[in-house]
Specification:
The protein is α/β, with parallel strands linked by helices and 375 residues long. The protein has 2 domains: 172 residues, Rossmann fold, CATH 3.40.50.1970; 189 residues, Dehydroquinate synthase-like - alpha domain (Dehydroquinate synthase-like, alpha domain, Up-down Bundle). 44% of the residues lie in helices and 18% in strands. The protein has a 7-stranded mixed β-sheet, with helices on both faces. It has a two-stranded antiparallel sheet with strand order 7-8. A two-stranded antiparallel ribbon has the order 10-11. Helix 2 packs across helix 3, helix 4 packs parallel to helix 7 and helix 5 packs antiparallel against helix 6. The chain is globular, with a radius of gyration of 20 Å.
């Protein structure tokens, strides 16, 4: 597709997400922040609010605001502190404070400009303010573009568990501007690759083969490689969430590596490890557990571990307790407050065979073995 005459030409890949009540598009391409025509289908409103953070707002907020000029009478920008440690009630209230200060009504459209933390909090604010206002995801990190901006999960962290307070609330539009990845720190790029790698073992081993062959190009930010990776990840996620919007069954597979990973994040303190770093290590641990249950062989575990390591991600689990004797107890304690846990039983997403996964429980003794082996 091409843009209107007042901006450059923007070649865009489109992934469509279909829900019974409403659907929307994910646009993937370069310099999409300047593609004013992509906002044409949004609900009419007099006020827009851009929610960003102290890192992203100075780089991209003015460009987004320029693209929205003429469409809204008033455009406000809310700048939040940056980091997973600020994904809290206190920070969420900063959004509500400004929405009320600006007298925003229920037609006000929020634009989430940033990574997963900004997207999750802006979405939760949109779901809650006046019981629901429109919002748009404009993810600027690889992790957000391939995962957190897609599918309508919104929320904040609680000291005892990640994303334990939130809502399912779908955006009007997702705009993945691949050019924003050029300013992404190396560590954040690697963190995003964890969520890219995830899609192979759970759904598409052909894609996994492609990632192995193109990991150097992805790390070098090759535009064609990034475009293919983002599009394929969004296609897989669009299919899964289209079948199971509220994670009653199939959607749980997208949490491969997250049960261990969320325990790592909560146990170390939010922000000590990036989300993608914890998920990368969590995938190694989940693969090891799959092997111990006889679902996959050691060769597959070694292959996955090698790719995660090559992506620049940790593969050794951190200690979450002061002594080795209590480390497994702490992991198990944290995992029992995971959202997927039922009646205190931990549900793991395990690889049933490469490209296919299953959600099931596992004996504590095997989980302890995995924690010991990976630490």
């Amino acid at each position: 597709m091409t843009s209107s005459d007042n901006s450059k030409i923007h070649l865009t890949e489109i992934v469509h997400i279909e829900f019974a009540e409403r659907s929307y598009d994910i646009h993937i391409g370069a310099s999409l922040l300047d593609a004013t025509n992509l906002f044409d289908g949004l609900p009419q409103a007099s006020v827009a609010v851009i929610v960003s953070n102290t890192t992203i707002a100075p780089i991209y907020a003015a460009r987004l605001q320029a693209s929205l000029q003429g469409r809204y009478k008033t455009i406000h920008t809310i700048v939040l502190p940056d980091g997973e440690a600020y994904k809290t009630w206190q920070t969420l209230n900063l959004i509500f404070d400004d929405l009320l200060k600006y007298s925003c009504d229920r037609k006000t459209t929020l634009f989430a400009l940033g990574g997963g933390v900004v997207g999750d909090m802006t979405g939760f604010a949109a779901a809650s303010y006046m019981r629901g206002v429109p919002f748009v995801q404009v993810p600027t990190t690889l992790l957000a573009q391939v995962d957190s901006s897609v599918g309508g999960k919104t929320g904040i962290n609680h000291p005892l568990g990640k994303n334990m307070v939130g809502a399912f609330y779908q955006p009007q539009l997702v705009l993945c501007d691949l050019s924003t990845l050029n300013t992404l720190p190396v560590r954040e790029l690697s963190a995003g690759l964890a969520e890219v790698i995830k899609y192979g073992p759970i759904a598409d081993m052909v894609f996994f083969d492609w990632i192995e062959a193109n990991i150097d190009a992805l790390l070098a930010r090759d535009p064609a490689a990034l475009a293919h990776a983002v599009k394929r990840c969004c296609e897989i996620k669009a299919y899964v969430v289209g079948q199971d919007e509220r994670e009653a069954g199939l959607r749980a597979i997208l949490n491969f590596g997250h049960t261990f990973g969320h325990a790592i994040e909560a146990g170390l303190g939010y922000g000590a490890w990036l989300h993608g770093e914890a998920v990368g290590c969590g995938m190694v641990m989940a693969a090891q557990l799959s092997q111990r249950l006889g679902l996959v062989d050691a060769a597959f575990v070694a292959r996955l571990t090698a790719l995660i390591k090559k992506a620049g991600l940790p593969t050794v689990a951190p200690a979450l307790a002061l002594t080795a004797q209590t480390n497994a107890d702490r992991y198990l304690e944290l995992m029992r407050v995971d959202k997927k846990a039922e009646a205190g039983e931990i549900k793991f997403i395990l690889i049933n065979q490469p490209g296919q996964c299953v959600v099931q429980t596992a004996p504590d003794a095997l989980v302890r073995e995995v924690i010991a082996a990976c630490s």
